[in-house]
Amino acid sequence: SSHEHKLNFKRSKEACLSYIQDAMLQKQWKRAAEFLTFYVESLEKDYSREPIGPSEMIWRIGTEILCHHSRSSTKEFNCFMEQMKTLGVKRYLKVCLEHVFHLLCNGQIDEAYQNLSLAESWRFGEQTALQDKEMKLIQAYRGLLDYYSWSKQKNILLEHGKCLDGFADLSVEQEMHSCFRKAAMNLKEIIKIPGVWDLFVKCYVDLLEFYGDHNEACQVLNEYAYNSKFPANPNAHVYLYQFLKRQGESKKSLISALKILHDIVPSHELMIDFNTMLQKSKKRKKRRLGLEVIFAALDYAGWKENVKAWSCLARQVKQIVISGKHLDWIKQEWNSRKDWWPAFHFSRYLAKRNWQENKSLSYEKALVAGILLGKDCKYFKYVSHQGCKAQVKRFRMLKKFVNRHNPVYLRISG
Amino acid sequence: RDFNERCAQCSEVNWGLTDGGRYYCRSCHNVTERTREVVNTDFMTNSRVQTISKGSRKQEKTGIGCEWYVCEGFQLVLKKQAEALEALGVCPQMKDEVLYSFWRCYLQKSKQAYCNRPSGETVKTLSVCESSTDVDSEAGRSNLLHLLSLSESEGELQTDCSFASSMSKVSESTSVYSGSVDGSLYLMKNQKEKLRMTMPMTLSFCYMALLWLREPITLSELLRFVVEGHIPYLNVFQHFPEKMKLCGLDLKIFCVESWPVYEEVYNKMLELAAFLDLPRFPDITDSCFLHPDMLCIKYLMEANLPDELHNWTCRVVKKIGIGEVDFLTLVPGNKSTRKVKYDILAAAVIVVVLKLLFLLDDNYEWLLSDFAEERNKNNKEGGLYFEFKKWYKVVKHSLDVEQKKLDEERAKYLWRCEKPLFYSVKNKSKVLKRRQMVVNLQNQFGKLSGSEQCAEKPNPSSFQLSWSEENTDGSCFHGHSLKGILQEKCGLLTAMNPDYWLCTVKLCNEKLCGHLAHYREVDFPQSYHFVLRLFSFLLRIQPSYIHDEVCMIEHKLFNKKLYKKLKYNTVLRK
């Protein structure tokens, strides 16, 4: 507020800063720019004691304003970034990196590449060692851009494979290989550091696969998924799984690849594949796990209307009921769910809606409901009635099946 | 020395000089035989001080500039300020005679000029360091380092960090120095007894001179003009001549990074007046602008209050004796009387009058307003009765608008100027580069700011809020009558409000805790706070200062009742 007891430089600039923040939050870019002009003279004062000094403030605020202001141009933006680079040597590489991100977001790939190369060659005494992390990132992103170049050239070659143009192919091929070498080197480096490098890993693996180095690819993906130093990352397991699948690996290794994914993200879309594989297994433990997996997935609202998921559950439940063995599995799974699944999945309202919108969905769900809640439950009654009325054969079969196995329900619910 | 005798004919102290150099009384044109000492006018125009006993001046051949002393710098500052005041309408006497005389007197008393330097005290400059074993200079340098590091932690005028750290290396060839000859000495020595000159003190000098001449500028106005840029203060060193190079420790002396505070300037002025052994200042009589009766008129107008309230303010002033000449006139050195802050006093009188008439307890004033509104409906006299509610709405709206503008202006304040400041030649290039970048960024973002780029200073005006009778929207309350809230008793009009609440039952000891009372917004009615806020805005001071004066006035006003009834009940009947 206004009652500043002693209005001095520092307080005045703090007030100025809060006006800038307000303007930015309300997307009033002209006003933000106006107040920024009054703030910039803070640069002439030394704030080395504060955690965030005016030079960093101006860099970040200026970037935002120039991004959003209607009248700013890329030329102005680049000019501004160059000035910011000279402002703080301790931040030089970080500013370069963020500049590159902006260029990439604006589709200026070539300029981004130039800036990355320039930044890579920067040396400044002990600062170079201090900013090692940023340097690695810069190299990594350059590697990424090299990968994209490689990818483009690869596609060109594949296209040309259709027509016969020998000479042009050779130079493109050579360039492609050189891109590969540059990319591979940098990508390999960055994924050694614990972190989340999804995009980099994917690209690197793609390169390795193309040149046939499957061992290395497998090793990289295993490291990425299982090295405890790396943060838990569901995608790592997905990539590994997809790779193994591409390589035609055994079900056993595919299953083990997905196991941790189920633990981390029980609602992952691959759970269907997982359940399918597990159901078919000869090992009892695996089939048991399969049931657990599919029940867990359907705990999530996003799966409520997924026909495939329901059909997996329905199939497995049906199979267990018919065989008469392992009913206790169903009982165990149902125990923690019987209080809320009925309202969550099997309400009368949902019965109506499912029947209207998706007959297959209602079929699968009705089967599950019939077994778990008995033939007198709302859901089953409504759907089977509707189905029989409509004279759809499978619903008649469903009704018969559930009626026949009604005692199962009694055993489960008891 | 200034001529302070009262005129034989008219007893005024208002002297001018005839062409023959004789004193004549400006009030009655009585010419005396007293002549004035010849003044060395070189003092004002030339930056060289002739009488400093140091030795001959040398013009540095390296082109760095001439030698100059800190007091010369301040003299220039005062000159600029006086010229600005003259441009605002203050009489030229202020600059040529009063201010200059005060300054000369100060220099004499603080032994910076016009005297023989006591033996043994040479002006020491820390020169370029050789690997000397001189203990003195080592100690001196480390003291200065200490000074510099202290200021760093205060956040005021931080030095370039690398600069400070390089000082600790004895082998470095750079040194702590200043452009002025005695800059380092100025800061180092304990100057408490000699009242070391500072930038805020220049304003104390100005105010003292204005008060001596009884010019119609209050201290709060003076400070407002300073902030608005009509009086040089911030970056005044820009106007130093080229040859007076400013660097190093000079920056700590001449560069300001905060606005002068009323209390600080005022107290320094009192100190200064005592230090200079000044006699009783010219009388503040009831025809003076600074008299509460006069100032109340101004503030009532600015606050958009009815003119009729002036009768009430005069009554209060008379009743508690704060309109007396002896109360109002400054007698330096007299510690027993409370010193008068004319502007705050007048504002406080108005607040007290409002409390007398409207109670301001967040309840009564609104009821009274409704009552006045009713009476207005049946009012056949032509003039409207004053309604508090309407006034509050109008004034609050304007106040909020102006306050918002002021807050934004304060956030937009530019402190730096084109003239670069650097501590040493070593970081000159860095400073210049930074400056260049700042200018570039200002241009770049300035273009994105939008079309309105008004860089002109608003014209200096005495009134910040103005209300015109010609407005047909009824937003001017000057002509309104108080009859709506008064009643007739024994042929006299008295306030309908029979009650009054004291801001505080007991006054604090000002000397111990600095205030007469401690104001917290939450402890008081909102209407009271609003009124304080209004005057706080006009005078650009904290509401607590006005609150102090209100307490003081109340205690004078209800003196008898307070000591008669030692109750804790704060509601008294008048």
TrEMBL record, chain A:
Q: Name one Pfam family in it.
A: TAF1_subA
Instruction: State the GO CC annotations.
Output: RNA polymerase I transcription regulator complex
GO BP terms: transcription by RNA polymerase I
What is the name listed in the Swiss-Prot or TrEMBL entry for this protein?
TAF1A polymerase
Automatic annotation (TrEMBL), chain B:
Rrn7/TAF1B N-terminal cyclin domain mapped to chain residues = 74-241
Kindly provide the name given to this protein in its UniProt entry.
Answer: TATA box-binding protein-associated factor RNA polymerase I subunit B
Q: Name one GO cellular component term.
A: RNA polymerase I core factor complex
Asked if the Swiss-Prot or TrEMBL record annotates the protein with the keyword Zinc-finger, the reply is yes
Which InterPro entries does this entry report, sorted A to Z? Answer: Rrn7_cyclin_C, Rrn7_cyclin_N, TAF1B/Rrn7, TF_Rrn7_Zf
- The gene that this protein is the product of is Taf1b
For this UniProt record, give its keywords in alphabetical order, as a comma-separated list: DNA-binding, Metal-binding, Nucleus, Transcription, Transcription regulation, Zinc, Zinc-finger
Sequence ranges assigned to domain RRN7-type in this UniProt record: 2-33
Q: Does the keyword Metal-binding apply?
A: yes
Q: Which taxonomic lineage is given here?
A: Eukaryota, Metazoa, Chordata, Craniata, Vertebrata
Q: Which residues cross the membrane?
A: none
- Domain of life assignment: Eukaryota
**Where does the Rrn7/TAF1B C-terminal cyclin domain lie?**
258-448
A single MF term (Gene Ontology) = RNA polymerase I core promoter sequence-specific DNA binding
Where in or outside the cell it occurs: the entry states:
Nucleus, Nucleolus
The biological processes this protein is annotated with in GO are: nucleolar large rRNA transcription by RNA polymerase I
- Which family is this protein grouped under? Belongs to the RRN7/TAF1B family.
| Origin species | Tachuris rubrigastra
A Pfam family that this protein carries is: Zn_ribbon_RRN7
